[in-house]
Design brief:
With 145 residues, this protein is mainly α. It is built from 8 helices and 2 strands. It has a two-stranded antiparallel sheet. A hairpin with a 2-residue loop joins strand 1 and strand 2.
Length: 145
């Protein structure tokens, strides 16, 4: 939730995650979708008339308010509730969405972390291989997954 949105404040991230959990929303998909909205807004693709407040990277208050708006499907939250691909497509820039087959994918972030950090390689490799069903391919060739 936080890093995708340019937020490092643990209290704000915890509050947004707590709200997502209490409201029955996936925290990772919500964070990726909010980050997509922030990028679309900052690039000028979301007009100011469509949002009741600025949606900028690093804005903790905006992140928390957007979580609440998504849950209530209120205002732009109704569009964000459909996921990052549909949000970006609505504004004419589906390429901005971090998605696979039009589905918001927080796993892409895990892949990127794995590629750039040594400390998470083993965890990410096992998670990605097993969660995405690729583990059996490596088992056949003797890889310890």
């Amino acid at each position: 939730m936080g890093p995708c949105c340019g937020i490092a404040n643990v209290a704000a991230i915890t509050k947004a995650n707590y709200l997502c959990n209490e409201l029955g929303m996936d925290t990772m998909s919500s964070g990726v979708t909010i980050a997509c909205a922030m990028e679309l807004y900052e690039k000028g693709y979301i007009p100011e008339k469509d949002v009741p407040f600025p949606i900028k990277f690093g804005d903790e208050t905006a992140m928390i308010k957007l979580v609440q708006m998504i849950a209530a499907r209120e205002g732009i939250g109704n569009l964000l509730a459909e996921g990052s691909y549909r949000l970006a497509e609505h504004y004419g820039h589906p390429e901005i969405s971090m998605s696979i087959k039009k589905q918001t994918s927080s796993n892409l972030i895990s892949v990127l972390i794995c590629l750039y950090t040594d400390t998470t390689i083993t965890y990410c490799r096992k998670t990605i291989l097993n969660d995405w069903g690729w583990g059996y391919v490596y088992h056949e060739y003797g890889e310890d997954v």
